[in-house]
Write a structure and sequence with these properties.
Blueprint (H helix, E strand, L loop, with lengths): L4 E10 L4 E3 H4 L7 H8 L3 E3 L7 H16 L8 E5 L10 H8 L5 E5 L5 H14 L5 E9 L9 H4 L4 E11 L4 E8 L7 E2 L2 E9 L2 E8 L3 E2 L1 H23 L8 E4 L4 H11 L10 H4 L6 H11 L8 E8 L3 E8 L3
Parallel strand pairs: 4-5, 4-6, 13-14
Antiparallel strand pairs: 1-7, 2-3, 6-7, 8-15, 9-12, 10-11, 14-15
The structure holds oxa(dethia)-CoA (UT7).
Oxa(dethia)-CoA (UT7) binds next to helix 2, helix 6 and helix 7.
Length: 330
């Protein structure tokens, strides 16, 4: 039998050392620990200092994942870096490849904002299921502190920096049990980190634009409404594909955006609290990193064990959302 199944065999994570508590943040913008904690569940977040790059965080998380799965960097065939905040718009995955010494891997970035890890998981699985690659490193990493408007209390209190990584390997049994992905560009305007430029005349009659990306803007209420409606739906869809019922899930692992979203989704799906993974109190919303960061913590804490069934869902800018049901380990 050919190894055309997918197993997720190791994880790793890395966060910057600097942490910023809500209390300290209230010296930067008019907010309070009480407001942030009750509205979001967030208590603190990690912030990358100028000497910390996205590639450094991604490489540190990846080294752990590679070690945990018992392979060597040279064994990697593909590196996918899910990020919206690359060090370089041409891509940061190749830098990670070089830092790891993954000389045999092709590497590229994938952008799907806070859905990036789930979209990356499904993308990586396709290369394995078709028999093209055997060992894939998938990283979710973001440094949103670079792109937050630190004068906008509606957004700056929400985000943090970090990286998480997993190794996917070809296996006899397929442990990616079901998935579903969705996009709705008509709602794109609700969450943006958009380029804005001013027109410049290059030659008479030939204008170009010069500018840069602008800080994050978000319609929090709309994104909240979207998440609470769409996430249970897409998890149901992925479960249907996996031919599993909700009570067969061992762990619910959502993108860590807001504890109220996590609680509402768990409630709608009828998943008890003890099966819900949450670490956003310590890290805030780390975008593409949030799922693999929480996954890695739960694995290292001995919560998620081999053969446990995990239902995961990412959602965010695009708008994009997706769910994947997988069985941890080989
Ligand atoms: O990863 C991408 C996915 N993103 C998300 O999932 C985010 C989804 N949205 C949310 O999580 C919530 O909408 C927020 C946490 C962003 C906001 O919570 P909310 O309950 O929707 O609050 P709100 O925006 O309706 O604001 C309520 C009040 C407002 O004051 P008024 O107009 O009622 O006087 C805000 O000005 O809270 C005020 N406010 C704040 N007060 C203190 C907004 N931000 C803050 C703040 N500190 N940081």
């Amino acid at each position: 039998m050919q190894n055309l199944g997918v197993a997720i065999t190791g994880s790793g994570s890395a966060v910057p050392a600097t942490s910023l508590h809500n209390q300290i943040l209230s010296e930067v913008v008019e907010t309070s620990d009480e407001w942030i904690a009750t509205r979001t569940g967030i208590r603190q977040r990690r912030l990358a200092v100028p000497s910390e790059s996205l590639s450094d965080l991604a490489t540190a998380a990846s080294s752990q994942a590679i070690a945990a799965s018992g392979i060597k960097p040279e064994d990697l065939d593909l590196i996918l870096l899910a990020t919206s905040t690359p060090d370089d718009l041409f891509g940061t995955a190749c830098k990670v490849q070089a830092q790891l010494g993954a000389t045999n891997a092709v590497a590229f970035d994938l952008t799907a904002a806070c859905s990036g890890f789930v979209f990356g998981l499904v993308t990586a699985a396709q290369y394995i299921r078709t028999g093209v690659y055997k060992n894939v490193l998938l990283i979710g990493a973001d440094i949103l502190s670079r792109w937050v408007d630190w004068e906008d209390r509606r957004t700056c209190v929400l985000f943090g920096d970090g990286a998480g990584a997993v190794i996917l390997q070809a296996d006899k049994s397929d442990r990616l049990l079901g998935f579903a992905l969705k996009s709705d560009g008509t709602q794109n305007h609700h969450l943006n980190l958009a380029y804005a430029g001013t027109s410049q005349e290059l030659l008479p009659g030939v204008n170009i634009t010069k500018g840069t990306y602008q800080p994050i803007t978000m319609n929090g209420k709309e994104v909240y409404r979207f998440a609470v409606q769409k996430v249970p739906e897409i998890i149901d869809k992925a479960l249907f594909q996996a031919n599993l019922s909700v009570d067969q899930i061992d762990w619910l692992l959502l993108h860590q955006a807001n504890q109220r979203i996590i609680d509402a989704v768990a409630q709608r799906l009828n998943i008890p609290e003890h099966k819900v993974i949450s670490n956003l109190a310590q890290y805030g919303n780390t975008s593409a990193a949030s799922i693999p960061l929480a996954l890695d913590e739960a694995v290292r804490q001995g919560k998620i064990k081999p053969n446990d069934i995990v239902a995961t869902s990412g959602f965010g800018a695009g708008l994009t959302w997706g769910a994947a049901i997988f069985q941890w380990g080989r």
